[in-house]
Design brief:
alpha/beta, binds zinc ion, binds glutamine, methionine biosynthesis, 754 residues, 8-stranded parallel β-sheet, zinc, 5-methyltetrahydropteroyltriglutamate--homocysteine methyltransferase, zinc ion binding, globular, repeat
Length: 754
């Protein structure tokens, strides 16, 4: 039999039990309840995997918060500030590292490769010592073994661990490899003693562009791990092709290699040619990053090729990467149309699907027939109403390059805009959302559930908008917003009003810790049947003399935060989104909204992992933004907003958006990011955030004025806008009112110095 497994499993549970248990523990400190829930979830998930056909189950892929944090704690890579707490109360210490608390600030958090999962960045320093300080992988092995399962512990490999870490002293984390390896070796020995047959070492960094020291580190590390007693080692690579790292990866002394054939099917031939005799190859044909059933017509030829070359004993099947990035079970989505449901595979379905492939390879007819039926169902997809719309395709086809252009160049537009809409120097504004109060949340929930009728709900929104405008006028802001009270989520709100989208009820995916997101599914051609935001923006504008900014989520962000259909290139889907949003921009303009903000907080995260692919992505992403904003009058001012500050890699692209004003997060980095704009000689308006909205702390006038003065060292006063880092929806009014008052006062003070 061809062996099947998976590299990792979703952690949260069918009903997000882990989220509830974590949040309860954070309130009441009852560790027993949390640990019981966690153990129960692990057992349930292993059983699910086994029932779906997995021959061995991953263990230690589970985490109470994050697996990179687990690895740091396991090997004692714990910064000094947490040590006392960790010793006194390991669980409290662990969560302090993850979330801060007890006067301790948390580890930094950042995105796991190009996913929307965030990991905690280990904080290391030169001379750091490591030791095997825990037994989580062993303990979880014993749990699985007690259930009669073949347990395969998952460890983040030593090189990826160091590459994902940072040092506080600027030294190279890789210099710590020699110190780290004995701790890994000690763990492998223990796993070996515990009777573990295989251990999985995740080295996703092998799919990145690597420099010579990193390659060298791989060779050193894996040679060392091969010396001691150890289970067989499966080296797991995912999120892309091995490419120029293929020889490196196949030369490492391990017993098996996992490759991602969902993202990089073209690498199979080269891998088969390079793979040493005896080595197991685990092929990831089922996509762990998306929610669509795989295409047997594409997958079976790959599998047959691998089987011919390797024979049954050396071929394994596992989804392309951990199933952490997909929801648990599409069987729960009874609210979706049957057709769509037939195209979907969440975690459980992916394992079942994989099992069919394995059985088909083993010559079982019913499996081959089931796969044929799947292929036929998928072939029907193209002819299902809404999947391919002639109107959408024709419009996209007829799109000229002109569509991505403003009518005039920026400097001319700036003059026209100053003429029709005179604003003071250092104009003040906000990023869009205002506090989402309990009343608002309740009204939205009641409206959804049918307990509040449309009329009553709309009254709540209208009252809220009026109130938000009054607050902004009282604070003395120059460009106002309606506050986005009608939006629960910046992507969902638009997706619900666009054709081609579907929403799941339980399709949660972990984002970080207990936080989950439920991405919409883009299954069909995207079109906008009716205006989406014009009504509330116009209503807001009717209440004030000051300009009210229209608020849209940009096409790249909608794409990035959705599960995207796999039968069209992403860039095509993005262009469809751009056209739909372009209509919205034009309708807002026609309704008298002269300033329109198109948020693109996800532009940067869509950047491909490999350098060679980045230019192409940035090119189409920028074009999509420009299509959205294109064609409006010179007097219409287009803003964009991004919530991060690492601009160096994408500054060309940001400039190429040709927005009139860009607002960005920068208060925590104290305006450091402006260097990139200065070096670039960026001419447009820039609003570097002066108020860190992630923190409950209310900054004072002087503090914000200082940040503005810092910004003016780099920017021309005519460029500088004054705004918070991001939307205010997570804050309360008690913080927002004084903060905005202080922000306006700071702007006035610095203005008077000009
Ligand atoms: N306009 C949105 C808001 O203010 C922007 C959110 C974001 O950038 N993530 O909430
Ligand atoms: Zn933001």
């Amino acid at each position: 039999m061809t062996r099947t497994t998976c590299l990792g499993f979703p952690r949260m549970g069918r009903r997000r039990e882990l989220k509830r248990a974590l949040e309860t523990y954070w309130r009441d400190g009852n560790a027993t309840a949390l640990l019981d829930t966690a153990r129960d979830l692990r057992a349930r998930h292993w059983n699910l995997a086994r029932d779906a056909g997995a021959d061995s189950v991953p263990v230690n892929d589970f985490s109470l918060y994050d697996h990179v944090l687990d690895t740091a704690v396991l090997f004692d890579a714990v910064p000094e500030r947490y040590r006392a707490l960790l010793a006194a109360d390991p669980l409290a210490g662990y969560f302090a590292m993850a979330r801060g608390g007890d006067g301790l600030h948390a580890l930094e958090m950042t995105k796991w490769f190009d996913t929307n999962y965030h990991y905690l960045v280990p904080e290391l320093h030169a001379g750091q010592r490591f030791r095997l300080a825990g037994d989580k992988p062993l303990a979880e092995c014993r749990e699985a073994q007690a259930l009669g399962l073949d347990a395969r512990p998952v460890l983040l490999g030593p090189v990826s661990f160091l590459k994902l870490a940072k040092t506080t002293d600027g030294s190279d984390p890789l210099a710590l490899l020699d110190a780290l390896l004995p701790a890994y070796i000690a763990l492998l020995e223990k796993l070996h003693e515990a009777g573990v047959a295989w251990v999985q070492l995740d080295e996703p960094c092998l799919t990145l562009d690597l420099d010579a020291p990193t390659r060298h580190a791989y060779a050193t590390a894996y040679a060392a791990l091969a010396l001691g007693a150890s289970p067989k080692r499966l080296l797991a690579t995912y999120f892309g092709a091995l490419d120029d790292n293929l020889a490196l990866a196949t030369e490492l002394p391990v017993d098996g290699l996992h490759i991602d054939l969902a993202r990089a099917p073209e690498q199979l031939d080269a891998v088969l040619a390079a793979l040493p005799a005896e080595r197991v190859l685990s092929v990831g044909v089922v996509d762990g990053r998306n929610i669509w059933r795989s295409s047997p017509r594409k997958v079976l030829p790959l599998l047959h090729k691998a089987l011919d070359k390797l024979g049954r004993d050396r071929l394994w099947l596992a989804p392309s990467c951990s199933l952490l990035h997909v929801p648990l079970d599409a069987g729960q989505e009874t609210g979706l149309p049957d057709e769509l449901r037939g195209w979907l595979a969440f975690g459980v379905q992916k394992l079942e699907e994989q099992q069919l492939y394995a059985r088909a390879l083993d010559g079982q007819d019913e499996a081959a027939q089931a796969l044929q039926a799947q292929a036929a169902r998928l072939a029907d997809r193209a002819s299902t109403a809404g999947v391919q719309r002639n109107d959408v395709r024709a419009r996209l086809h007829g799109l000229s390059a002109q569509a991505a252009q403003r009518r005039s160049a920026y400097l001319h537009r700036r003059a026209v805009q100053a003429e029709v809409r005179p604003l003071p120097l250092l104009p003040t504004t906000t990023i869009g959302s205002f506090p989402q109060t309990e009343t608002l949340r309740r009204a939205r929930a009641d409206h959804r559930a049918g307990r509040l009728d449309d009329k009553a709900y709309e009254q709540v929104l209208a009252d809220e908008i009026r109130q938000v405008l009054q607050q902004q006028e009282a604070a003395g802001l120059d460009v106002l917003v309606h506050g986005e009270p009608e939006r629960n989520d910046m992507v969902e709100y638009f997706g619900e009003q666009l054709d081609g989208f579907a929403f799941t009820r339980h399709g949660w995916v972990q984002s970080y810790g207990s936080r989950c997101v439920k991405p919409p599914i883009i299954w069909g051609d995207v079109a906008r049947p009716a205006p989406m935001t014009v009504r509330w923006s116009s209503y807001a504008q009717s209440l004030t003399e000051k300009p009210v900014k229209g608020m849209l989520t940009g096409p790249v962000t909608v794409l990035q935060w959705s599960f995207v259909r796999d039968d069209l290139p992403r860039e095509t889907v993005c262009r469809q989104l751009a056209l739909a949003l372009r209509d919205e921009v034009h309708d807002l303009e026609a309704a008298g909204i002269g300033i329109i903000q198109i948020d693109e907080p996800a532009l940067r995260e869509g950047l491909p992992l490999r350098h060679a692919e980045q230019a192409h992505y940035l090119d189409w992403a920028v074009t999509c933004f420009r299509i959205t904003a294109g064609g409006v009058a010179d007097a219409t001012q287009i803003h964009t907003h991004m919530c991060y500050s690492e601009f160096n890699a994408i500054i060309d692209a940001v400039a190429a958006l040709d927005a009139d004003v860009i607002s960005i997060e920068s208060s925590r980095s104290r305006m450091e990011l402006l260097d990139a704009f200065e070096r670039y000689r960026y001419p447009g308006g820039i609003g570097p955030g002066v108020y860190d909205i992630h923190s409950p702390r209310v900054p004072g006038r002087e503090e914000m004025a200082d940040l503005l003065r810092l910004a003016l060292r780099v920017l021309d006063p005519a460029q500088l806008w004054v705004n918070p880092d991001c939307g205010l929806k997570t804050r309360g009014w008690a913080e927002v009112t004084p903060a905005l008052n202080a922000m306006v006062a700071a702007a006035r003070e610095v203005r008077s110095e000009l």
